[in-house]
Amino acid sequence: MTLFDDLRQALRSLLSRPLFALVATATLALGIGANTAIFSLAHQWLLEPLRVPAPEQLVNLSWARERSGWTSSNNAGSGDAVFSYPTFRDLERRQEGFGRIAAHRQIGVNLALDGETASAGGLLVSGSYFGVLGVQPVLGRLLDERDDAVPGVAESVVLGYGYWQNRLGGKSDVLGKTLRVNGVPLTIVGVASAGFDGTTLGTRPDVFVPITLSWSREPNTLPEHESRKAYWVYLFARMAPGLSIEQAQERINGPFHALVEEVEAPLQSMSGAELERFRASRLTLQPGARGQSLVPEQARLGLGLLFGVTALVLLIACVNLANLMLARGAARGAEMAVRAAIGASRGRLLCQLLAEAALIALAGALAALPVALAVLGLLARLFAEQIGVIEAAGLAPAAVVFAFAAAAATTVLFGLFPALELARTAPIAAIRGHGPAGAGRASTRLRGHLAVAQIALSMALLVLAGLFSQSLSNLADVDLGLRTEGVLVLTVAPPRNGYDAERSRQVLARIEETLAGVPGVTSASQSRVRLLSDDNLGGNVSVEGFQAAPGTDTQVLRNEVSPGFFATLGIPLLAGRDFTAGDDAAAAKVAVVNRRFAERFGLGDAPVGKRVALGGGVPDVAIVGLVETAAYAGVKDEATPQLFMPIAQRPVARETHFYVRTSLAPEALMRPVEQAVARVDPNLPVDGLQTLQAQRVESIAEDRLLGHLSAAFALLATLLAATGLYGLLAYTIAQRTRELGLRQALGAAPARLRAMVLAQVGRMGLLGGAIGLLVALGAGRAAESLLFGLSASDPRVYLAATVLMTLVVLAAASVPAWRASRVAPMEALRHD
Fold it and tell me: Which of 418, 445, 576, 741 meets the CB 3.0–4.6 Å disulfide criterion with 325?
């Protein structure tokens, strides 16, 4: 017989038992679908390279060093990955023999076209950006070195493919049109290719603009952006052909060391030892095939854990199917024996049985694809900010290949052992009914071992789900030092409309006043930093009376806020005063610090009256208030020193976030708040309008993902284990009907028969539970860094999981045990 004959016969056999085929296919579809969905996320977050030529030649630059000045980073990388603009230009000129360097920086933009203004995502790029990547335009040309030759001057813009399609209908006549980007009229010169979404995972720039627009987007900031102490530009490079990363690193560090010695070091306000460490610092190159993003590093452990969880669910599904196949084989013992008796070899029987398993696996893989898409869609709705881009991409070809590879693996996992057991049929014994396949002691032991494995895997998943659920609960209960309930947050950016500093300040002040007058609003205030959003602004400080020892960390987080900010957010004022309307640009510089700042710099409970300086130099900013330490970038962040300054004293106006406290339900004020901003300036878009509580929830998205998914998969695994255990016991009782009848005939009480079945289940439960607890302990310790407020061996979680699994096992065993005690002796004695 050919393979085709085996498959045809296998299909006929499965169609004769449609319920079995349906249950087996659905079980596999759930297991493979869950794995495929998580693999799709992992592939796109961790594995898929940029869609550019030879991505393996790309490297990302970083510079770990002590530094003075200010640092501004985002999700493209940490503070070590940002450079000053002059340093980028110097490296660009000194890269002989190394390769080509490019710079970029993600920004928010307001785009004005055909009389409508809307907020969008933009990417500042150097003229070398597209050339280094090797990206080609789908229309027109891309930016090059002619577009960023003069600081403060930008004339061209390239559209992202998605923006071109969705906003402009994919029309080819867009070339040459004027698009106002942050109030600057730019000429559309091209459209980036489909599938190119920049170099930072999770972002989709609508426009690519010359990096020199950074000065135009924030008027009067040229000195700041030209400063070598302003670190804000991300750098990557394409290595020269034939170079390894190690060789490229040596080549770039030669001219870089000269640059540090000649230019950078003399500008640093550092002590002797600090300066020596600064001079000894080196550039580090990391593989850049997947672009620059913090997402892979942040998501690797969590996704790996989720992938392990779904793999355990699939294993449980396979164990279930193996038991089903063994039970089905018991009923087919005579059929297999007849085939063997008329000449079918053991190999032929094995091929036919594996063909059945392969067809089930294939059907399961096909059914798993819509399951995986549904899971991705559900995740995208629950975690829109984090994986909405992933949902739009759907299942990558690699994910489809994975689904079918998983199907092939499951064919072996659930099909091989039952097939071997069936193929060992003793023809004469099976035909006589004394030795049906699967009914022997070896088969019974195998099914028992499989049940133990199911219990062990389910127990491990229950513990892990409990750990992450408790961690999520702890995060929900953590005291942030501020009150998130009853607060709305929104973002406006007058400079993006081309407003100068003075006009921007006036517009922002009028917006704050108008928001405070909305019925139901009790207070409104401004903030430079959007709290709980991974937004940060930091730098070194010098504090009056504090002598920093070598290696002392003098970095603090900064914010610029308006009067009433602390009251709006419910941050207690411990000493001194809040900012007032008098703390404007003409007044003396003042600051408020938090308790952690006072502790770090030895100010105790009396920091008021002390002076600080941003960076080096003589302290010239008077501390006028002390507030309690509150959360800054995220819920899980440790307490950090924070320095607040009046927003009216900042030299330039920037993107600003408003916090609005209301006595009503904050959701009910969203529309009135938007209308209030429109009354001040109808051309100023409102971004990121949401409750502060929603912002808090978004900030723990990874924990929510782990908590919810691990709980869902643990529930699925437990249900599979329970049904598998029930099926095994029901089958075992059916096979032991004669024995149970004889025991009753000889005087065994029904209670004793029930106890006999429960004892069998108890042994399996104890062994499986113990193994599962050990597995969970090891897995929990590996993922302990993802937990918040508890250890991987928290006894409460292990106890709860044990109780739950005990109840599940007893529930699965109760009906078979009751049936065992209800066997009629005379009926059992007639049982074949």
Answer: 418
